[in-house]
Design goal:
The structure holds two protein chains of two kinds. Chain A contains 18 helices and no strands. By secondary structure, chain A is an all-alpha fold. Chain A has one domain: Amino acid/polyamine transporter I. Chain A is globular and about 55 Å long. The mean pLDDT of chain A is 89. Chain B has one domain: Four Helix Bundle (Hemerythrin (Met), subunit A), CATH 1.20.120. Chain B is elongated and about 50 Å long. Chain B starts with a helix and ends with a helix. Classes of the chains: A mainly alpha, B mainly alpha.
Amino acid sequence: MKRFLGITLGVLTAMGGFVDIGDIVANAQTGARFRMALAWAVVLGVVGICVFAEMAGRVAAVSQRPVFDLVRERLGAGVGLANLLASFFITFLTLTAEIAGVALALQLATDVHYLLWLPLCGLLVWLVIWRVRFESMERIFGLLGLVLIVLAVALWRLEPDWGGLVDSARHPAVPLGEGRPTYFYYAIALFGAAMTPYEVFFFSSGAVEERWSRRDLILNKANVFIGFPLGGMLSLALMGLTATVFAPVGIGPDHLSTVALPVSVALGKVGLALVIVGFFAATFGAALETGLSAGYTVSQYFGWPWGKRFAPREASRFHVVVLVSILVAVLFGLTAVDPIKVTEYSIVLSAAALPLTYVPILLVANDPDYMGDLVNRRLSNVLGTVYLVLLVLVALVTIPLMVVTKAGA
Amino acid sequence: MAVSVALAGCVQPVGPARTADDYERKAKDTAETVLSSVRTAELAVDVAGRDRAFPPYVSVVLSDAEDEAGAAASTFASVQPPGESSDRLRDELGDLLDAADDALSAARIAARRDDGDALAAQAGPLNRIGDQLDTFVAAHE
């Protein structure tokens, strides 16, 4: 049981990376529009995040230093600051969307408008970050997020045309009526969502919070190779659900409410209740992740004491950054900006900033001064280098594709 | 740069229609969006009728569908038709959009009042309008 609970950091991180508010809607939309023709982008993202999260976790376990600490040291203060500004902006947008996502999940259960829930949700997120131990936090929300396995159960209960779904995934083609740029825009959105920078900031900082050492390298691997593929599997299940229920009748799910409908069709009220709980847990977990990541990145850049392993008075600046970020995110959310759109843009924009996050990880993971005998092996380096080339290409085409396709419209 | 792109992106731009073809494409896109809302509502009414969803949830789904359709219709209404043929298209689609709006509103009102019979009664109109929108989209593909 203890070993099982040990992987909740990876599960919670993966929930934020794969089934947060933006991913839920993005996966549902791609399934409805392209069936499983973009499943490859999820698989590509899962492999990529596994490669770099394993490196980041290993570096944190061996050197006791999280990713952003290394970003500044390796890229220098100037480039590090640019990276901080870009990463913080994206993390802040995501935090806004996640807090709104929690409120939207409550709206689904109560029919009370999400804007009324928003301040309470912001307060709850802050209270959990302030009061709950890191380990308890990751276990509660990591495990609660697993309720979203109901997505896979619903797909199975619908008895879909498995052959058709697999065929659509194995022979991806741009459907009639969809443009190639739009197809690739969504591919980048899915890939960017899977490799969002805050995932490695959170994961590596979490490893330091939990005081991982060389003895925990197996735990690191278990977290990475179970947590992230699980998140990817849930993404694919959601894609399969909407491909089965929505694609044939032309429904384009633009709201969290619509995304839950196939589960209701397949499993009735019990399934619906579970999926709403799952949405709540996944978005709440992602709000904790992004709220903490906001504090982690700023504090690590400026060299302040950070994290929940210190008493708040010892890491006061870290807690102030977290508190102010949550407060401003709630105020931004209260302007009635569409949270789904905010998160869609944040994951696409994060794709443009990916190389700045992942280059330092690859460099440090190869540095024997930090890593001793635990430097990258050949396979990690080959995969890491291939992915870096891919990340640079993605970063270059993201904004032009966003403009050309009117953000996938 | 990122801020401006992100914030600009949060608002769906209403582009002008310079030609009849352009206008027709916008009409088809609007019909597709409203069709999606109508089919969503149809599905929600169906699961509610079979007692497979909670009333507050059904109410939210219908309200979101109505908002989505209303936003699409209002965006289309603000596009200037470039000529007479476009005027006819505007009238044709306008009637369908009005009918969709009425049916979606009626379904949302019934759901909010927890009136199962009135909600079930909207299944037929929603299905009919959905089929008409489907035909419209196919004709302008």
